[in-house]
Design a protein that fits this description.
Four copies of one chain form a homotetramer. By secondary structure, chain A is of the alpha+beta class. Chain A is 35% helix and 20% strand. Chain A is built from five helices and nine strands; from the N terminus they run αββββαβαββαββα. A nine-stranded mixed β-sheet of chain A has the order 4-3-2-1-5-9-8-7-6, sandwiched between helices. The longest helix of chain A is centred in the first third of the chain and has 23 residues. The termini of chain A are far apart. Chains in contact: A-B, A-D, B-C, C-D. The interface between A and B is medium-sized, with 24 and 24 residues.
Chain lengths: 215, 215, 215, 215
């Protein structure tokens, strides 16, 4: 492997830790929940499962190939890769994503309870933060049902990704949301916009304001 | 350009980054939204568009003259100036502002949904933080309708500034707020007071307390 | 003045700045509002008026004697002492307080709107954080009406302090709260407990739970 | 005592301070309330009572044996061990806990007011963060009544621990919650999951969503 790529991967490890700390502060990764993976070329850095997300260190990461085979493990043999790994890989494979964020934000969970099969909102500026969307567009996020085990979500996540070719996120009812983008910055921007819109929808419901303009 | 002014502009670049980080933490600049510009003499420092606002660096800034011509660009050719630039310049030109803050705070968005053409509140101590206002005054903030493109807001923002000569802020429905002041500190103080008042109004509505005292 | 006292006063200046930063983060001192004073022996350190509370520096403090005469001013001649100074001095003089905290917390403002002349709550563990109170006691905080100018509050604040000899706080309607204690730590502990109780009362009202147990 | 254990205990003291600071930021340890103890072998590190939890230092800790006798005190003779000590020891003794967290989170207090003798929730992903629980399980947390003095809670806490052999937490009505785990990380993970679930339950009630699925 060329030296430059090793260096890039090294700093990406630190970035994963910084972002995990930030997502913890946002309430997206409390109780060791939530997660992030970042792709560097043909490799994907995945955080370990069940660790305090705000205290992760660069050497705790796993490395996978884009087709899902394990390339590298941390020295600490007690660590296992995130249970989201197969879900992360689905978004990477099906959408050529450069990064995937999984959040347990309470705003995502509440949104999944306020809507039936699709979260729908229109006419909020932050909709423009989602790629391909403008202010007047109707933003639709599919909602899939949760399963007892995280890995059992993969089939329905893949089906939702296929059924909603314009979406960059899939809500998981009573669980959270998966958001992806072409790189970490794009994924983060979209994850923040979706989270804002989930929260805005609940605020609007509480105040009796419709979340979609009648036409 | 005299040496002193260069040095001042340099530290102002760092200040823009510090304030952007603070506004991110306040929820005003999530998803790369929101922004700030600061005027130094006849120059205006403007942040780039679409970057993570809590990670901006001093060398990423654009410099404009007060009349809106581009004086300096960052070395990174991928950066474009904030889409708010023409709106920032409107407040600088029409009100001789020294700094303009654009926030996507959810409190501003909710306030824009709870009121029709004007946000109105009276008898809260924080009203005194708005220049020229006292506790018993009726604080009025005009609300303009959002547009699909940010630059298309300029005409209605300018009209609102002209129609409300005492205001230091204009709400943009379903979008956020623009706030200005004679320098960065004055703009920040007023932006924090407005945000507090927007939030207080929603709390009062939820609890059935009128936002204006009947006379 | 003995050397030790000078050193103590010096570190107290840094402490005032640290606490002001913390109160800003708690939402008590936004928009340059709120404040704190700490007494060191016969001197009282008072923060300046109208500055960004999270950016204050030790050399910006004013020093007053306990009887209210100005002993020392910061080098920056543009600074004026906090408008709360006469109110701070009232609590110091009437209650021998070692520190006074003034907060604009939205929880205090909402509490002042939910209750008439007195905020009353009972049977919450955090009541025990207020000196002299136990879990089953009825905590009463007097509410005084706000005035157009902060200095005009002094007479009614003093009257409330006299009328409620057990209170360590006075709410100011539509404005905030003043809390004092025998030293900075005691004042801070009580200010945090009062703020928690103000917030709890609003939560209980929203959920239809009485804030006082019927006997 | 072997050298290694002394070193481990030393770094655990720093960890207690870091976690206390984190719990303060989460609103679990405001007004000097809340606390944490961590067991190292046969010793238990206990924080002092009535101190600012975000400013604790490693040398302020008390050391107890697992059977509750005091082994070491801080040099500052004004400090007393946390009033939670007997409650911490109950969880350590009865459940072989490696760490116990006591939180005054307003979400725990609100949950204790929304439910009668048991907090019950089902079908939220974060339930899986509680040891032995899966998504479809019914999570039950016993609620005991508060007492005027914290030490008087020990008998009913012990009774609840005995009556609910699967629980890792006990809610104290109008007060907060005790959570334990096999080590600090496990206790923290569970405390964050419980807190999230308490908050989610209140959100669901406010929005008219049942906290348990009808079967």
């Amino acid at each position: 492997m060329p030296r430059l790529m090793i260096m890039e991967a090294t700093s990406t490890r630190a970035l994963v830790c910084q972002l995990a700390r930030q997502f913890y502060d946002l309430g997206w990764a409390t109780g060791t929940g939530g997660g992030i993976c970042i792709r560097v070329g043909e490799q994907v850095l995945v955080a370990p499962s069940g660790v305090q997300k705000e205290r992760m260190t660069p050497e705790q990461m796993f490395t996978f190939s884009v087709d899902g085979s394990l390339l590298g493990s941390p020295a600490d043999a007690a660590l296992r890769p995130s249970e989201c790994t197969s879900l992360f890989m689905a978004a990477i494979r099906l959408r050529d994503a450069g990064a995937v964020i999984h959040s347990h934000s309470i705003h995502a969970v509440v949104a999944s309870l306020l809507f039936d099969r699709e979260f729908v909102i229109s006419e909020l500026e932050m909709i423009k933060g989602i790629e391909g969307m403008s202010f007047h567009d109707r933003l639709v996020v599919p909602i899939i049902e949760n399963t007892a085990r995280e890995c059992d979500l993969a089939a329905s996540l893949e089906a939702a990704i296929a059924a909603y070719p314009r979406t960059h996120a899939v809500l998981v009812r009573r669980h959270g949301v998966y958001v992806w983008g072409r790189d970490w910055s794009h994924a983060k921007t979209q994850a923040e916009c979706y989270d804002y819109l989930f929260r805005a929808a609940a605020e609007m419901r509480r105040l009796g304001i419709p979340t979609e303009r009648s036409t």
